[in-house]
Predict the structure.
Amino acid sequence: MDLNLVHMVLFLVGIIAFAAGNAAYLVWVERKGAARIQRRTGPCEVGPAGLIQPLADGAKLMSKQIVFPDGIDKPLFMLAPMFAMIPAVMIFVTIPFGPVGFGPFADFMIVAREMNIGLLMILAFASVNVMALLLGGWSSKNKYAVISAIRGVSQGIAFEIPLVITAITIVMISGSMQLSTIVEAQAGGFWNWNWMPLQGNLFGPVSFIVFFICFLAETNRAPFDLGEAESELIAGFHTEYSSMGFGLFFMGEYANIVIGASLTTILFLGGWTSPFPEFVPVLGASSFLWFLLKIYLLIWTVVLIRWTYPRVTLWSLLNLAWKILIPFALINLLGSAVLIKILPMLGL
Amino acid sequence: MGSQALSQNNETFEINLGPQHPATHGVLRVKLTMDGEYIVDAEPVLGYIHRMHELMGENRTWAKYLPNMGRIDYLSALSYNLGYVQLVEKMMGIEVPERAEYIRVLTTEMNRISSHLLWFGAFVLDLGGFTPLLYAFDDREHILDLLESVTGSRLTYCYYRFGGLYNDVDDDFLTGCTQFLKRLRSRMPMYHKLVTGNVILRQRLVGVGPLSAEMCRKYGATGPVLRGSGVNYDVRKNEPYSIYPELDFDVPVYSDGDSMARYMVRMDEIEQSMRIVEQCIAKMPQGEIKAPKVPKLIKPAIGDYYHAVEAARGTFAIRAVSDGKNQAYRMKLRAPTFCNLSLYQEASKGMLLADALAFMGSLDLVIPEIDR
C-alpha cells in the first residue's frame, strides 16, 4: 500500500472534519460568547452547557425541506452554497498547522499538501467566496438578496486589494510564498514576528492592522456585515435559502473565519512558533498547539468585535477600503521595499 | 451625492419595507422606490394595526374608555392614561389630591425612562449593534417590576382613575425607585462610553437625517424630534399640567437636527426624568390618593375640551367633544409619532437605505400609536 495515499486520505478526512467541526463549534462559541457579553446564558438545554446544540442544529437543518421559490435560477441557486463551502475546505489543504512539537513525532509537520505558492493559492480560493455571494443573491430572484449580493461583491473586491498588497509585503520580507518558510522566518520569540516593528520592517503594525481589517471585511463579519444587514436586508443574500443550502453558507462563513485567522497567524503572528525564545524549556518549542491557541484568540477577538460595534454603512465601508486602506497598504509596500530591498542594495 | 446619482439614470425599483420587516419594529409598511442604494421615494403605508380607538371612544362610556389608553402607545402607556384622566378631570372639575399627583408624575416619568431605554436598545439594534438592547432591557425590567408592583400590569397600564389612583404606593416601591435610580445612574456613563462615544455610531448618526425647525413645524413634529431640531418646546414647561411647575428639571434641546441630536435629547431626557423622580420621592406628601367626591356617572357638560401632555414621543393631546351624554360625541387623539412619521417621506428622499433606517429609528416610532 502506498503510504503517500494513506497520508493523503487521512489528511483529507481530517481537514473536512476540522473545517466542519470548527464551523459547527464556532457557532456554539459565538452564541456562548455573545451570551456572556450580554449577560445571558446562551444555549444550555442540549447537552452540558449546550455542547450538543451544534449537532442538533445540524440535524435540524439537514432534515428540513429545501424550498425552491418560483422563478429562481435553479442550477445557480444550488451551486452557490457549494461555492461557499468547497473553496473553504480546499484552502485547508495548504495551511500548515505546524510540527507536533512533542512526543516521538516531534518534527512531523501537520499539513496535507505544502505548496511553494501556498499563499497565492489561498488568496485565489478565498476570492471564490465572492462568487457564492453573487450567485446566491442573483439566482434567488429576491430584491433584498440582489442588493445584498451587489454590496457583498463591491465589498469583497474593495477589500481584496489591500489584503493582497499587504500579503505581498510579507512575501517580500520573507522572500517566499510558501507558508512554512514565512513562519520559519519569524522563529525565535515574539519580537521576531512580522507584526512587530523590529526585524528591519518598521511598518509591521500597519500591515497587521490593515490585514486584520481586511480579514474582517472579507469574511463579512461585523462591523462590516453589510451583506447580512438584518435591519435593512432581512437575511441578505441567503434570504431565500433553507435547509442545508443555508447551512452551507453558514458553515462557509465560519470556515472562512478560521482561514482568515490562520492566515493572519501565519503571516503576522509567527504561525506555530513559540512566543518564547528556543532556550526556554517546553514553552520554547514550536508546536501546532501554539498555532491553534493563536487562531482561537484571534477568532475570539472577532467575536468580541461583532457583539460590541454597530454596523458601518456601505459608503463609509468603501471609503475605508479605497481612501484609507489601499493608500496605507501601498505606502506600506513601498516603505517596506525601500527598507528591505533598496537600502541593502545600496549598501546602507 | 444623492441627487447626482438620481439624475444619471432613471431605472428605479420598488421594495417593500414591511409590514413584516426586522427594522420597522411592528407592522409599518414603507414602500421604497430605490435607485440602487438611494431612496427616490419612501411612502409609509399605514393601517395594518388600526383598531379604531377614536371610534371606540365615541361608543363607550368615559370610564370604560380608560383601558384603551394603555393600548395606544404600549411603551409609555402611563402618559396616555394621564392625559385622558386629566381631560376628564378638567371636564368635570375634579380636584386631585396632591399625593395622587406626585405618584402620577413619578410613575409617568419612570415609564418615560423605560420607554427611552427601550428605544435606545432598539435604535442601536437598527444600526447593527445587538448588545446594548439586552442591557437596556435589563434596566427596563427593573422599572417594569416596580410598576407592576403598584399598577398590577407590566405594559398596558390602567393605573390612574378619575380623581386619583387605583392603588397607593408603599415604601417598598419608593425605596425600589431610589435603588433603581442609583443603578441607572451608574450605568448611564457606561452607555455613553460604549455607545455614544463609538466612532461607528457617530459616523452613522452625525449629519444623518437633518430636520430643520421649519420642517418639524410644517408636519407638526413634537417631542424629542422637535427638540433635536433646536425648538425648545415641551408641554410640561409650555402648557404646564399636574405638579410639573413645582419640579425642577431642564428641557434638553439640541440644535443640529440630525439623528445624533435626537439621540442625545432622549439620553438627556432619561437623566432629567431621573431628577424628576428623585424630587417626587423627596417631596412625596402624605394623604389621600383619591378625590373625595367623584361622580359615579361621568356626564360632562356640552362643550369642546382639549388637554395635552408630554408623552415619551411628543405631545399627546385629546380633543373631546361632549354632547352632555355619558359618552363622547367626538374623540380625537393626537398621536405624536403619527406626525413624526409624516415627515419621513419628504426627509428621506435621496438618502441611503442604511441611513434612512437609522433615521427611521431616530424618530422612535410605535406603530400601534400611529394607526391607533
Notes: The mean pLDDT of chain A is 82. Chain A has one domain: 66-345. The interface with chain B takes residues 34, 37-40, 143-144, 147, 151, 222-223, 225-226, 229-232, 234, 307-316 of chain A (CB under 8 Å).
